[in-house]
Specification:
Elements lengths: L1 H9 L2 H30 L17 H12 L4 E4 L7 H14 L6 E5 L4 H12 L4 E2 L3 H5 L1 H7 L2 E5 H5 L4 H6 L1 E7 L11 H8 L1 E8 L8 H11 L7 H8 L11 H8 L3 E2 L3 H4 L6 E8 L3 H16 L6 H13 L1 H12 L5 H12 L4 H12 L4 E4 L3 H13 L4 E4 L5 H13 L3 E4 L14 E4 L6 H9 L10 E8 L3 H12 L9 H7 L7 H11 L3 H33 L6
Parallel strand pairs: 1-6, 1-7, 2-4, 2-5, 3-4, 5-6, 8-13, 9-11, 9-12, 10-11, 12-13
Helix pairs in contact: 3-4, 4-5, 11-12, 15-16, 15-18, 16-17, 17-18, 17-20, 23-26, 24-26, 25-26
GO molecular function: ATP binding; helicase activity; hydrolase activity
Keywords: ATP-binding, Helicase, Hydrolase, Nucleotide-binding
InterPro entries: DEXDc_RapA, Helicase_ATP-bd, Helicase_C-like, P-loop_NTPase, SNF2-like_sf, SNF2/RAD54-like_C, SNF2_N
């Protein structure tokens, strides 16, 4: 009976009409949905990605830049903001918007090798965009699968242009290509330029604070990648727009600027009215105890003697941990001694574990007890953080902890406690990323990253728009350590802590395309033994960086003459 009833009902005219209405409703919904998507694509007055981006400060000029690129430039633009205004954030907004609208799937980001991991971190933490990089092991194991099977790739420009990878990168269609430090494409005769020119790309963003470094022809080469034919041929360009033999003085500047406005945005600090309070940096050189000094010296000697038995990462890790704390060093030595049969490793590990009073921590406690500022103490290694937490408790220093492996709820609670009640935040490398902690105005770099950009990222957690107080930076180092030499260069020689955030990155890029600061300093340390030889080598590095800084300042002046303030969002 029931079966008959069901059968009759399912085939009744009423049911047929109901099904037809449902079918029409679905068709109507799908049609409306498609119409909505089309309206989104046509209307960039509102960025639909913004509500989901909760971990970044959204400044008006960055949003305007993204809208202009999407609405007027059709996704092909040169982002040439002055240093420190957030070109990476602008690029991230554009990428996020295209993804949110379903207009792109495949993304290729090309960057200097030293910035690959930074881009991956920024895209992941700030925009929720997952990616794979050329640092990943899969690139070595199966290059073809790496380049064709991953939707979002962040690649070292040098890796991508190599003979092994060039054909694979250029054989694929890319929805969006982003090139960071795009001034590396200034010469059309280089593989850098030829690679980007050969990419099958729908949209392309090129980021550089220094579009012209030597001559206007560099601008022609960059803009030709974005919009071929915009400036015709190089001969036509020179005849029409260049009035000097050295190629630096423009002819018909207004006409040239009019053309550039079709593809270029350059926000300036004066336009966006970025006025940050002053920042003051102090190097605190701590005299180590005899046992600490001997441990550091013997470790360095071991690394010099057995360099060929250790990979570069292990050598760097040991030296960085040695500058951080005996606890961090001992942990690493113990792990390494299980892989390598060297009695010295076990001996060094045992000696590290026997050091109970660390001079750096004693000096830090004295500083914090005298200070009335809200202070973030940055560390890199878990063992060092754990040791400092113990020291703080023993010395009645109230603090909150912000560590990478904490839950989101725990991190929020730590920031809240630091803001409302506690004078100190003990933070890991990612401490405060994406959070408003401008209520603090002092930073202690208890252990010093060898990558100047990472030092700058730490400072940028509080020295940013919204900070109303002067900022104080205390850089700790052991006397006679590699960090002491690093600070002599960064602080005393090139005055890094007086530069605008982002300028050090450009200066390091001006040394040469392959330059890596951290690799250079460890090479100096391990290849030289006497104090005199080490000092001489670091002086040479300082001179190279000063020349790069001078070159950057000359470029700034040239770009100011060419562009002025006429390319804002």
């Amino acid at each position: 009976m029931n079966n008959t009833y069901n059968f009759t009902f399912q085939n009744s005219p009423a049911m047929t009409a109901l099904k037809q209405r449902q079918h029409d409703d679905i068709k109507y919904y799908n049609a409306r949905n498609e119409l909505f998507k089309l309206s989104l694509m046509a209307d960039y007055d509102q960025l639909v990605c913004l509500p989901s981006l909760t971990t970044i400060d959204k400044h008006w000029y960055q949003i305007e830049t993204a809208r202009k690129v999407l609405r007027q430039f059709g996704g092909r633009a040169l982002l040439a903001d002055e240093v420190g205004l957030g070109k990476t954030i602008e690029a991230g907004l554009i990428v996020s918007e295209y993804l949110a609208r379903g207009m792109i799937q495949s993304i290729l980001i090309l960057t200097p090798a030293s910035l690959v991991s930074q881009w991956q971190l920024e895209l992941g933490t700030k925009f929720g965009i997952s990616s794979i990089t050329t640092d990943d092991d899969s690139r070595q194991q199966n290059p073809e699968e790496f380049w064709t099977g991953n939707p979002h790739i962040i690649a070292s420009l040098n890796t991508a242009k190599s003979a092994k990878h060039y054909p694979l990168v250029t054989s694929r269609n890319w929805d969006l290509v982003v090139v960071d430090e795009a001034h590396h494409l200034k010469n059309r005769n280089t593989l850098n330029w030829k690679l980007v020119n050969s990419l099958n790309k729908r949209f392309i963003l090129m980021l550089t604070a220094t579009p012209v470094q030597n001559s206007l022809v560099e601008l022609f080469n960059l803009l030709t990648l974005l919009k071929p034919g915009l400036l015709k041929t190089e001969a036509d360009f020179k005849r029409e727009y260049v009035s000097s033999k050295n190629g630096r003085i423009p002819k018909n500047p207004e006409k040239l600027r009019s053309l550039m406005r079709e593809v270029m945005i350059r926000n300036t600090r004066s336009l966006v009215d970025v006025k940050l309070p002053k920042r003051f940096a102090t190097t605190i050189t701590v005299t180590p105890s005899e046992s600490e000094k001997k441990l550091y010296s013997d470790l360095s000697e071991f690394l010099r003697t057995h360099s060929e038995h250790l990979d570069k990462l292990s050598r760097t890790n040991l030296l960085m941990r040695s500058g951080s704390s005996p606890n961090a060093l001992g942990e690493s030595l113990k792990n390494l001694s299980q892989k390598l049969d060297f009695e010295e490793l076990k001996t060094l590990a045992k000696r590290a574990s026997q050091i109970k009073q660390v001079e750096k921590s004693r000096t830090l406690v004295e500083l914090l007890k005298k200070s009335s500022q809200k202070t973030i103490v940055f560390t890199t290694h878990k063992a060092t953080s754990a040791y400092l937490a113990k020291v703080f408790k023993e010395n009645s220093i109230e603090f909150a902890e912000f560590l990478g492996d904490m839950t989101l709820k725990q991190k929020d609670a730590a920031i809240e406690a630091f803001r409302d009640n506690l004078p100190v935040l003990l933070a890991s490398e990612t401490g405060g990323e994406g959070r408003n902690i401008q209520f603090a105005n002092a930073i202690v770099n208890y252990d010093l990253p060898w990558n100047p950009m990472k030092i700058e990222q730490r400072i940028g957690r509080i020295h940013r728009i919204g900070q109303t107080q002067d900022v104080f930076i205390f850089n700790f180092c052991l006397q006679g350590s590699i960090e002491e030499y690093i600070l002599r260069i960064l602080h005393d020689k090139i005055n890094m802590f007086e530069l605008v955030v982002g300028e050090i990155e450009t200066i390091l890029g001006n040394v040469n395309d392959e330059f890596d600061f951290s690799e250079t300093v460890i090479d100096i340390w391990l290849k030289n033994q006497s104090h005199q030889d080490i000092s001489t080598a670091f002086e040479k590095l300082a001179d190279d960086l000063l020349q790069a800084k001078d070159k950057y300042q000359e470029t700034q002046e040239l770009d100011e003459k060419i562009f002025g303030e006429e390319f804002e969002a």
